[in-house]
Amino acid sequence: MTWWMRRMETLQWWLRNLTVGTGLGRFLAPQSREDLIALMTPGVTTLNLGDQIIEEAVMQELADLFPERFIVTFSSHAGFRRKSLALYNSCALRFWGGANMIDRKLEWAFNCSPDIPVYEAWCYRRNLLLGSGMGNHRWNRPGFNVAAKLFYRTLLSREGLHSVRDEVTRGELVAIGITNVICTGCPTTWRLTPEHCAKIPVRRAENVVFTLTDYCPDPEADRRLIALLRDHYRHLFFFPQGAEDLAYFRRLEPDTERMTLLPPDLAHFHEVLIPGEVDYIGTRLHGGMRAMQRRCRALILSIDNRASDMARTLNFPMAARLDEEAVRAWITAPRPCTMRIDQQAIETWKNQFRQPAPGAPVPFSADVVRGGAR
C-alpha cells in the first residue's frame, strides 16, 4: 500500500466520523434502508418494568403493521453513540414508542426521555410519535419553554400523523404548532376492546396484587392502603415494578402475614394474574394495564397527572391514592370495565402506512420523515 493510499484511507475515516459524530450524516447519509424501522423505546436500559410492558405493546403493533421490516430498538433513556446515531438515521421510519416522551420544560444539555440534548436535536432525522404522552408536570406554569419548543419542532415530523395517549398531550402539541396529532390512547390499551373488557370480572376476587411507587412516597397513605386491602382480601401479593419499590415497601414495615412478595420480573407477575382469582390495585399505571390485558379486574391509583390525564380520555377504573372511600367502593361494589378506546383514531393512524386499494389516495409515505429538510 502506497503512502498516498494510506493517507486517503485516514482521510476517509476522519470524514466518516465527522459526518456521524456531528450529525451531518442526517443530510449526507446514503439512501434510507427501507427494510429497517427505528423504535425509540423506554424498555431498554430501564429501572421500571412498566417500560417493558409499553415496549411489548408497541412492538406488537409495529410487527402487525410492518411484518417484513426489521425493527431496531434504541433506548430513550441511555442516549446515542456515533454508530447508533448513524443506524438510527438510516432507518426508513423512526418512531418514539409510548411512555413520557413529551415534557413542557427541557434543559439545553440534559434530558431524561428521550435522552437527547436540545443542541443535538438537529443531528436526528424526524420522527413520528406512537402513543406517547406528557411526563409529570414539574411546574404549574403552563406552556413549553423555549428549549422544549425548539426540540419538538426540530425532531417531530411535520407530515403524517402523530399518535398520542391523551387529549392533554394533543392539546399541548397543537399549542406549539404541531397540529398533525390525533389521540389514540397508549398502545397498551389499543386491544382493550369492548369485547375484551366484557370478559373482565365485575365482582371482587379473593386475592389482590398491589403495587407502590418509590419515587412518589406517602408512607401513611400506603400503610392505610395495605390495611384496607387486608380487610377485604384473603391473600395479598406485592409486585415491585420499579427497582426501588421493594426497598420502599420494606421501609413501611408492614405485616407480611397473608402476603407474598413477588420477584421483580414480569413472568412472576403474569403467574398470579388469573382472571376471577386476583384483582389488581396499585399506583403503577402499566401494572394495571397488564392486569386488564390479562382480563383481571384492576383499579389504578393516581399519584400524578399521567394516570388522571389518561383516565379522562380512556375511562379506565381510577381513584386517587388518598381517596379510601373510592377504593373501598370499587372493591365491594360490582363494577364493569367500560374503557373508551377510539378504534377509529387508531385505524386512522395505522392506515397512513397501509397500501391503498387501486385508485385510492396514496397514504403517508416514509419519505415524509426520511429527509433532514422535512
* Number of distinct beta strands: 12
Helix content: 25-40%
Number of structural domains:
2
- From the 3D structure, determine the CATH topology of the largest domain: Rossmann fold
Structural class of the helix and strand makeup?
alpha/beta
In spatial order, strands of the major sheet run 2-1-3-4-5-6
* Main beta sheet strand tally, sense and closure: 6 strands, parallel
Distance between the termini: 43 Å
Per CATH, the class of the largest domain reads Alpha Beta
- Mean pLDDT, all residues: 87
CATH architect. name of the largest domain? 3-Layer(aba) Sandwich
Question: What radius of gyration results from the CA coordinates?
Answer: 23 Å
Summed up, the helix count is 15
Write up what this structure looks like.
It is a single chain. The protein has 2 domains: 7-188 and 345-370, 3-Layer(aba) Sandwich (Rossmann fold); 194-332, 3-Layer(aba) Sandwich (Rossmann fold). Residues 12-16 and 366-374 have low confidence and may be disordered. By secondary structure, the protein is of the alpha/beta class. The chain has helices spanning 3-22, 25-28, 49-65, 82-90, 146-155, 167-175, 194-197, 219-232, 245-251, 266-272, 285-293, 305-314, 324-332, 343-351, 367-370, and strands at residues 33-41, 70-75, 91-97, 128-132, 162-164, 181-183, 207-211, 235-238, 259-261, 278-282, 298-302, 318-320. The chain has 15 helices and 12 strands. The protein is 38% helix and 16% strand.
